[in-house]
Amino acid sequence: MNKRARVLLLNAALGPLDYRVDPQHDVQPGSIVLAPLGPRQLAGVVWEPEHMPSDAEVGDNRLRPLAAVYDLPPLKESLRRLIEWTADYYLAPPAAVLRMALASASALDGARTIVEYRPTGHVPPRQTPQRAQALERLENRQGIVRELATIADVSDGVIRGLIKAGAIEPVEVHVDDPFPTPDPDHARPDLSPEQTAAAQRLTQAVDAKAFAPILLDGVTGSGKTEVYFEAVAAAIKAGRQTLVLLPEIALTEPFLKRFAARFGHAPVAWHSDLRQSQRRRAWRAIASGEALVTVGARSALFLPYRDLGLIVVDEAHEASFKQEDGVMYHARDVAVMRGHFESVPVILASATPAIETRQQVAQGRYEEVKLPLRFGGATMPDIAAIDLTQDRPDRGRWLAPTLVTAVQDTLARGEQSLLFLNRRGYAPLTLCRHCGHRFKCPNCTAWMVEHRLTARLACHHCGHVMPPPRACPECKEEDALVACGPGVERIADEVALLFPDARTAIVTSDTLWSPAKAAEFVHRMEAGEIDIVIGTQLVTKGYHFPNLTLVGVIDADLGLSGGDLRAAERSFQQIAQVAGRAGRGAKAGRVLVQTFEPDAPVIQALVSGDADSFYEAETEARRHAGAPPFGRFAGIIVSSESLDEAVNTAKAIGRAAPRVEGMQVYGPAPAPLAMLRGRHRQRLLVHARRALDVQDVIRDWLGPIEKPRGVRVAVDVDPYSFL
Ligand code: ADP
Ligand code: ZN
Q: What is the CB-side half-sphere exposure of residue 434 using CA atoms within 13 A?
């Protein structure tokens, strides 16, 4: 009889397939292999057949042989179970989850050097606008041809032309250079007594080598990072790996610096901005166990750590841990599951924990470690509301007189201010003064947002851009376009008018699109080269600028307009976090919150500092409504380029809805974002009691539904977005 192996291939459309294992190959569950599929070869992982049933059993005589077995550590059982759990819970193909574990195709093969390219500084003999643009954008970046072309926004051919012309040169890169080992005793801080107690509990949990979900609940500036660093130090001492998850890649660079200051060396970074060679090096070091500490965005969660000892989820309340396409998982929740399968502690650090997490603590499933005070005697900032119905900005302006005065005073003291508005661009809506025409995205149910910095109108959903036209496309009137409402760029204009000498910076994903840009911003803030920051939610997290003493929230009502079940909570978290940037050093901080509803519970909670009653009221409202964490939701999104097909499939799904005790199905109805990237979207919402296995119900329900080729049905389990 042939030896056979069941293999999960990196192709989400396929189930597991069986292969013949020839005698020269040695495989076990978890082995990473290369297998033939039609005329091609694909990477995959050997799986236990009992964990991965196949409905296409092939006789021994028809099996094709495995092409190769990689010389890499097999995926551990704990990771295989996590992949299965994630696929099962989020109703995703296991291969799509596996892809996140084998995240770097180039990591798999043996080559130890690759050729990258970088600008030489020579101007090519024949210059073209494309070439000039490429060289300007590349500065001194390095990478393979495809990466350089992407950075420079030119075709591969332009880069190749520049290589031929000698303006870009090849460099041989050793991709497996070892990473330095962080030193747990490099620069240990003197912890306060509260911090010491908290750190002791965390290090104990690491030493116990057992699953323990722990909420590290500490006010902004209390030293949560310093405290969990002690747990990281304990893991390093034990020779075990740590994974630190951050909500934004913009935060990695400052984190790396801070980590290096504490441990002598930077940790291994994992995020989408890495070059292929860096990904390979990181992946292999993680798989071999050499990378003792990895910091990354949510995709770092599925990497094949050889010997994980600790997981930290920093800013654990952040909604950006929820992935909204592909496998729609929540990295915070999967991190806890990984901790369970690996038998290691999971620390969720936050100053504003999610209601879901608080509830786990209340039920005794998670432990809570508290840091109620700011470190070093720094006080919490004083928060006051500005009632916009009384304290009105001038016409066409957005800063109330009180806020203007406060910025002025802060400038006069040589301190820094932060103005927060969670809206990119200049204005959220552009219309024609003459005929009222509004600029809409052709692909989405969304307005085109004006960006003056780049002189474009852009759709924030699909990325569609167009130059702002001089004449209205509807009535042809010239110069009649008006901007409605403010974005950060418009606030920056107002600031420039009010304080012409102040040095300002706009901080959004448009300006801080890479870790390097974020690092540059931090550097300029620390060097005192910026007086006023105008930023979106990107500046609300993590940063520590001791000279920043004033925070102005331009529109506190903005977050409440969305109206989904977490709107009030999210608003509270966002404003509390941005307020937490003020007065973190020796100087006291002040926060002014502009609102039309100073009596709204969110604003009251912020001003009075009584977060607990606010959370209690929100929690009770959720309990009453059977909303998470007391009940469960799942969104079913049906999309197609054809409206009819989308509607008909959604209706068919609605008609087939099973009657299950404790479960209601709402819809189908057009999604609030009725059109996205050229696809029409219909939504159904499943609401179920907590104990119900909705995934099973949905699997049985959607399995038999016939759908036309162009229709996609996506299930969003525990949704965060209701668009
Ligand atoms: P949080 O993450 O809770 O907002 P941080 O860990 O960023 O707080 O700490 C706030 C600031 O105080 C940081 O600059 C940090 O280095 C400093 N800090 C906190 N605890 C200590 C300590 N024990 N010794 C020295 N500096 C500390
Ligand atoms: Zn669009």
A: 11
